[in-house]
């Protein structure tokens, strides 16, 4: 994570909310074949763990049980131009949100995997306005068994949280306001909004 302490935000509830809102991240681990990454839907249990699932054939699947892994959740980001500063002797940078989670991974049993999949699909189905709500029970039992056989569920006990909320906190308030306006005008409204709401 970024070494500047100004970009830390020790509000655990905020980090949990970011994970909940984004719902997707990357799992990194070392394997005998070298470092590997998988891109996965994520589900926070709310009690210090995070769940995800992988295809049985994924390069990480057979190595994760009992391993220490790193999960990264990336939030909004945007390029910051020096032209937005009053002091023109600046250089370009990038504002961004990222949360790193490190911990020990364990494989779920079949019941845990099914409960995880139901929770993930229910959470995201609730966000969709149009059409009928889809749930796992709409699948025929035989089809569901076949799909479950092709994936493996995991739960990571989070042992370390490392967050970077790089929102120009190292700049004066008027400079931050100009950067936020610039980011919004150039198509990055989400990071601009976070700059306005999460910095003094």
TrEMBL record:
Transmembrane segments: none annotated. It comes from the Bacteria. Pfam families: FMN_bind_2. This is Transcriptional regulator. It comes from Novosphingobium arvoryzae.
């Amino acid at each position: 994570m970024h070494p500047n302490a100004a970009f830390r935000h020790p509000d655990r509830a905020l980090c949990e909310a970011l994970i909940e809102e984004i719902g997707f991240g990357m799992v990194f681990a070392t394997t005998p074949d070298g470092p590997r990454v998988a891109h996965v839907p994520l589900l926070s249990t709310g009690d210090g763990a995070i769940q995800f699932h992988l295809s049985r054939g994924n390069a990480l699947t057979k190595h994760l049980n009992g391993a220490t892994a790193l999960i990264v959740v990336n939030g909004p980001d945007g390029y910051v131009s020096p032209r937005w500063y009053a002091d023109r002797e600046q250089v370009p940078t990038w504002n961004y949100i990222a949360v790193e989670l490190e911990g020990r991974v364990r494989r779920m049993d079949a019941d845990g995997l099914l409960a995880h999949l139901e929770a993930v699909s229910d959470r995201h189905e609730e966000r969709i306005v149009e059409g009928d709500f889809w749930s796992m029970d709409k699948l025929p039992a035989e089809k569901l068994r076949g799909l479950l056989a092709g994936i493996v569920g995991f739960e990571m006990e989070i042992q370390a949280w490392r967050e970077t909320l790089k929102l120009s906190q190292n700049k004066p308030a008027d400079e931050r306001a100009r950067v936020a306006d610039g980011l919004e005008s150039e198509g990055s409204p989400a990071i601009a909004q976070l700059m306005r709401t999460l910095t003094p």
